[in-house]
Design brief:
CATH architecture of the largest domain: 3-Layer(aba) Sandwich
Structural class: alpha/beta
CATH superfamily of the largest domain: Periplasmic binding protein-like II
Largest sheet: 7 strands, mixed
Distance between the termini: 24 Å
Radius of gyration: 21 Å
CATH topology of the largest domain: D-Maltodextrin-Binding Protein, domain 2
CATH class of the largest domain: Alpha Beta
């Protein structure tokens, strides 16, 4: 869900003037919007690396959209949302203002900032969605995406928090904190690695080391500070270069994606994998990909949590239908369905207490998967996401000082 090109950051931060269809939609009632949406098609560009997520979207969501609104949902699998950000930018530069190829994007972080700064997002409409009332916009972790105010430009879909996983039959006592993990890596050569940034999950691991080197997140919160970055970066590169000879293949190469890391773990080549979505560990166990003794865990000094969203580009020709999709995704029923461990196990982006009683009962009845660390346990030590400028500088520095 990451990776914009730097050129996007140079674009104007002025509010995008509404296209004619966008302005008209914001003047409609919800009933008028759903009437406008009926019979439409939504091209949803989203990461396609998890069969369970794909099945939920192409099955449960698509089926409901067709049955209730006669909307056709076309799920377009991608590996990197930055490619789609750049596609929308290219369309804008070519003067394509109302016939874009993209109707909806699964997005967050740097890519959202790029879309917002580049005037590429449809904004100011989210309060029109009936299910917007289920969202706690007073929560800064919802109202801000990697430190960037959402401002009605995207709709939350899931909340996640980073977790590690290991085979408890082989690692009975996993490292308790980042310092212990770094020590474990040196004591167990070849048994650990991480995907090379800019892979989304590899970049997240890198930020955990950066926060550890800083002594905690407090010094890194807020706008980018070059002096603080330089001080912390020097410590970070020393740490990462220090463990490099002890990594898988002696650090001479890194996995290119979290998918490759997962394969290494599944094959027993490395002892740990990690993910922003701990539910994926349980799903992999149920699929027979990971051993039943797989257990996930957080760190006592914290792991990073964030929210991911869906966004409608400014030049989508099917904005009304895309809004209907977003509203369905926010519904208590759809959030409950994807929270089921056998479906996805995703944490909701809405306040469960605001949903209907039967939805609340459904959430209460969900049984935790033994391989998945409870979200409440992770939340006891949650770290905030750094603002996007920090991410860009950290990844650039890694490529220059470690990845080279």
């Amino acid at each position: 869900m990451l990776r914009p090109l730097a050129v996007l950051l140079l674009l104007s931060t002025a509010v995008q003037a509404d296209t004619a269809d966008g302005a008209a939609l914001k003047a409609m009632t919800w009933d008028q919007i759903t009437a406008e949406a009926r019979g439409g098609t939504v091209n949803w560009f989203m990461w396609g690396g998890a069969d369970t997520i794909n099945a939920y979207v192409s099955g449960y969501i698509a089926d409901r959209l067709k049955a209730e609104y006669d909307i056709t949902l076309n799920r377009v699998p991608i590996t990197d949302a930055a490619d789609i950000v750049n596609q929308v930018l290219t369309e804008k530069e070519a003067g394509v203002t109302d016939t874009g190829a993209v109707d909806l994007i699964w997005i967050n972080g740097e890519n959202f900032r790029a879309m917002k700064q580049g005037d590429l997002a449809f904004c100011g409409y989210t309060a029109l969605l009936p299910n917007d009332g289920l969202v706690n916009w007073d929560n800064p972790a919802i109202a801000n995406d990697f430190g960037v105010p959402v401002d009605g430009c995207e709709v939350p879909w899931n909340t996640v928090q980073f977790a590690f996983a290991t085979d408890s039959a082989k690692v009975a006592q996993p490292p308790a904190d980042m310092a212990a993990l770094l020590d474990w890596i040196k004591a167990n050569p070849g048994r650990f690695t991480y995907p090379a940034p800019p892979d989304f999950t590899g970049s997240a691991f890198l930020r955990h080391v950066f926060i550890h080197a800083a002594g905690g997140p407090e010094a890194l919160l807020g706008p980018f500070d070059q002096a603080k970055f330089d001080e912390t970066a020097a410590k970070t590169w020393t740490i990462l270069n220090g463990i490099e000879p002890f990594l898988w293949r002696e650090g001479k190469t890194y996995p290119t994606s979290v998918t490759q890391l997962n394969e290494l773990f599944a094959n027993g080549e490395v002892a740990f994998t990690f993910n922003y979505d701990p539910a994926q560990f349980g799903l992999a166990v149920d699929a027979g990909t990971y051993p039943a003794t797989t257990r996930s865990f957080g760190l006592s000094d914290g792991t990073i949590g964030n929210t991911n969203y869906t966004l409608i580009p400014f030049n989508s020709p099917n904005k009304a239908a895309a809004m209907v999709v977003q509203n369905l995704l926010l519904s208590g029923e759809a959030q409950l369905e994807k929270a089921k461990t056998e479906v996805w196990g995703a944490a909701p982006a809405i306040e469960i207490a605001r949903t209907a009683q039967q939805v609340q009962a459904g959430f209460a009845a969900i049984k935790a998967h033994p391989s998945v660390v409870p979200a409440a346990e992770l939340a006891k030590a949650a770290l905030p996401e750094l603002q996007a400028d920090w991410l860009t500088a950290i990844e650039k520095g890694w490529a220059e000082h470690v990845g080279n």
